[in-house]
Amino acid sequence: MDRFPNAANVDFHSPLDLSKAAAAVLDAEGRVCGWGSSARRLLGHSPEDVLGQSAARLLAATPEQRLSSLCKLCKAHRPRSTVLDLCCRDGRTLRAAVTFSPLAHQGAAATVVVAADLAVLRGWEAQLAMLQGLATESAVGLTIFDTDMRVVWGNVSTDLELAGIGQYIGRPAADLFPEGEFISRHHPPDEDQIMEHVLTTGEPIMGMHYRGRAPADPVREHVWSCSYHRMVDARGELLGLFEESLDITDRYRAQERLSLLVRAGKRIGASLDVRRTAAELADVAVPQLADEVLVDLAPAVIEGRQPPTGSAPGHSLLRMHGRTPEEFRTSPVSYPPSSPQAQSLASSRPVVDAAPPGTPVGSPPGTPVGSPPGTPVGTGPASSHSPHPPHSSLFVPLLTRNAVLGLATFRRSSNPDRFGPEEQTLAVELAERAAVGIDNARRYTSQHAAALVLQRSLLPQHLPEQSAVDVAYRYLPADSRVGVGGDWFDLIPLSGARVGLTVGDVVGHGVHAAATMGRLRATVRTLALLDLDPAELLTRLDGLVAQDAETDADDGLGDETLGVTCLYAIYDPVGGRCVWASAGHPPPIVADASGSVALSALAPGPPLGLGGLPYENVELSLPGGSVVAFFTDGVVEDRHTDIDSGIDRLAHVLTWQRCPLEELCDRALSARPPGPQPDDATLLLVRTRRLGADRVADLELPPDPAMVARARTDTERQLADWGLSELSFSAALVVSELVTNSIRYATGPVMLRLIRDRCLLCEVSDNAHTAPHLRRARRDDEGGRGLFLVAQMSQRWGTRYTASGKTIWAELAIS
Predict the structure, then answer these.
(1) Whether the predicted model's global pTM rises above the 0.70 cut
(2) Does 37 score more than 90 pLDDT?
(3) What does the alpha-carbon distance between residue 808 and residue 815 come to, in Å, rounded to a whole number?
């Protein structure tokens, strides 16, 4: 027989109860005169086997011991209980609990014997002990309600018992914890609805979390885990229900603290923005830890500078306001030396400040100097909605390894509990995470600002006015936490009224990308002044970038040097010809004077630094008034569409090419999709001009020294026609020297070209590829002074090579 019956068959009757126990009747001599069916079930003996026989035969002992024990038990004048070993019919020995009760019947003495299996009896007694423990010693609270959901009984662990169970007997369940609430999400939040559900369906509801204040402890908020079960009697009739409740306040708060720390790890510091990080601290802590969070920071931290070390910034803090970039603002606060805020900053420890009883509204504890009473300040959902002053405040300094960044203030208004040691530890942990995030954001702000200043300083501050083109440009840094990029553009005045145009992009972001961009832009400008054609310029630039990549690879910086894209173009306003080449860069878009827009047929070569493939020139005739768009991929790329869609969008804007270039720039960038942009956007728009025949004079001269005089005479005549007679002497001298030098060394005709632009341009072209060199002639030298005179009379001079020879040019200033 099982010692502990199955839970579904629990019977709380005693095994010695007459309805269950084995019963027999003995006469005064100890003979069996009555044998019930229950006795037969227990021992297996039939009535025929035992009636009239001595009961001593059923005892497992010596005959003498049997008779002695039986006589004592049968002759007792009051009930006696003992433990006996009984003999079963199958030969087993059963240890049983036996009770002998004397019975007088019509003057004949008799004894009623009741027996039960001792093991079963001990199991029943254990169940009673368990029930007794639940009622008097268990930490589990038990409350019984009748079918009207009124209190019937509660054990000593029930908070009602601690407060006096008698005053709650007969009262509705809703009256027990009027200010409590269920915080579980999967069941109705009302206790009456939960009880009604259990009574109606019989379905138990278990593990509900209930938050409230116990009648015996109205100051501290508790959390219980509650379960509800229906009760029915043996006939299946409804008796009511009972509630199990276990105070899990400490465990629940520990889980809340753990989840809060997990949430803080995911959210605080994710934005790399000082103000947002302050708001993230408030969003995480409210309302679980505090009703309101205020964050005060040193001005240097907000500006991205290193805060001062060695002293707490208690007299120069700025309080953060707002939760979005549009709402962010600051207001100055300072704390008296005796204030708890100043004490916290000076000691680098948290300080709890509780409002004394009777504190008037508008004068919360720890009110800083400069903050008007009653003004809601700070960050967090509750910061502007707290109608009551805080009754408890916790001040925690925001610390880094060597400086104090500011102060975080945690306030409680609706929660009357004072900040305890565990909550202080939690607040310190949150403040440490916030301090790390704020310091990282400060460092990022500083580096981002430095990179942006560096990049802007390396880009052209203004483009020189040129007769060849009208220019407008835009540069927009990316709205990205990764920092500024490496976009650049430039306009380079070249000889012969020509202009060089370039746009490029360095892979990567940050200070190194900006520095690489500046170095490449300077290199392009230097090579352009050598009058190299676009393909030759990119070839030389490719070799330099590859060398830089090899040098930077040892420092782990080579990735940003490789993959640089660049486009370089030269426009000649005299012939209206434009030549360009690309190193992995998107080709330009051209809109002619009629409004027709087309993408250049330029096939980009490999990005700079990769090498292995040549760069090719593409030449195009551009009528005056054409608009050419040079751009980086940030103008035409975004996260949601491909680059072809972006190019089509830019081409559509260029159909308005008759608009001013500044307006076209604004239209092109405003057409980009809204939202943060992952890459810098650089746009250079150029409207071409042509120099008319009235400003250009060409003269072809045979290679005859006598032609020098003709060149000088024609030059003086042309300058007179242009109204530049004051330059006749200087220009004639320069032309004489350049033509003389070409006729002396060339084998074919010599071309003289005069261009009236912002200065007077004199160009002499021949078929020789040997360039003259400037040198200082000695006193006894017969020659060598011509180029020296040219250099002295002109503001610039130089040589450029063509497919058929070279051109020597000089520029003379027009006063």
Answers:
(1) no
(2) no
(3) 23
